[in-house]
Amino acid sequence: MFIIINKIFNRLKLTLSIVIILTFFFGCLNSEPPPPPQQIDTTTDQQKEAIIQESTNEFVNNTGIVLEDLTIKPKGSLGGDVIINVKNTSSEDCTGLIINVDLVSDTGNVIVNLGLKSPKTVPASGSETLKEGYIGKGATEVVVTELTCDASILGDTSGDAGGKKDKGGR
Question: What pTM did the predictor assign?
Fold first, then answer.
């Protein structure tokens, strides 16, 4: 009886050993090597100085908002801040100023799209500075794509936007 139990255990040990070896072998074959560590390029061919763009007032709008200064201020090698100084030349307050811009490279490729929204009303004859961070490399020019004083186009019907909440069943 002892000999029979010993043979069963020996066969179990052999079977279990084979299963472990096969599992290890096939498990290693199906695995992919780990990805290389991510390297951040700290070199830059762009100067770390702010790029100040003279306002050409080429962007025509009927809001009375004049873009006085457009600045790209790099922070590190992968982004920075866009700073836009505006003046309201209208006789009316601008209650929901939004400026959409594209940051483009020297070659004309769009690096990033941004929307800058004024946190407060820009009064008639008043000025405001809008600032927004961006992530992207090689931005050299700010191109204004849209400018409005009506933030309700974004669905913002509260606060300074001047809209009214819809209480109907639309």
Answer: 0.59
